[in-house]
């Protein structure tokens, strides 16, 4: 049994990671910014300073940990209202991650699993599913901050011996999902016509239960040492296929309009959302062969099972 610190333990991904680790018999400390929000079986530690400032000084006396799963982050949003988005992303995702690594290392941690993003590599796959050793070319502030965090943590690990493991998921969905996936579900539930009928691009996604299982294994499996792993569901559906599957599980008709890609690009240009449309109509497939080969990992849930669980949650809460 290991003692694992999970940052962002009350978040969308963090809560499921905590459940997975507790189920595996590990002692879990949940690092959160507000009290009373951890799942059962997790020892809660509240540290409410922004970007983990002062974490080392606030570290509970006598607490040592074997490892860290760092899920806390400033997450990607399509329309960021920050005056300097890159500076904000760096403050949390780069500087904050370094503070967690430094404090955990001083208190016994031998491994840190960093939840990065496929956006640290690219926004589209250029004809082949993205591999861990592909050249990196992040296209937005979020992706750049995640890549910079990977590099900073790798440098820290090389200096100190802390074992840094990088995990890069694509879009994550599941119960309690927010942002664009939730907006898509709401549109389908309300019968809003969607202009996705002609989009043939395939996009890898990952169910939060699959991601949590991979993160828990990366935190405890000796074979994961100093690894970088891409994690995704087996399926890479088109946007139209994804929308139809959501509609089926919500028991709502999916109204897809077969709008030509050229029209979507023109609309994106007129609305100042060219990058959003480019991402929507381009393939972004993820190669997961490394984690399968090195760790023997396979996603325990199918995409259909993940979407069914997500739709059940949505129907019961909206």
Automatic annotation (TrEMBL):
Domain of life where this protein originates: Bacteria
Domain named NAD-dependent epimerase/dehydratase: residues: 4-224
Name of the protein: SDR family oxidoreductase
Pfam family, one: Epimerase
Organism: Paraburkholderia metrosideri
InterPro entries linked: Epimerase_deHydtase (IPR001509), Lipid_A_modif_metabolic_enz (IPR050177), NAD(P)-bd_dom_sf (IPR036291)
Taxonomy of the source species: Bacteria, Pseudomonadati, Pseudomonadota, Betaproteobacteria, Burkholderiales
SUPFAM superfamilies tied to this protein: NAD(P)-binding Rossmann-fold domains (SSF51735)
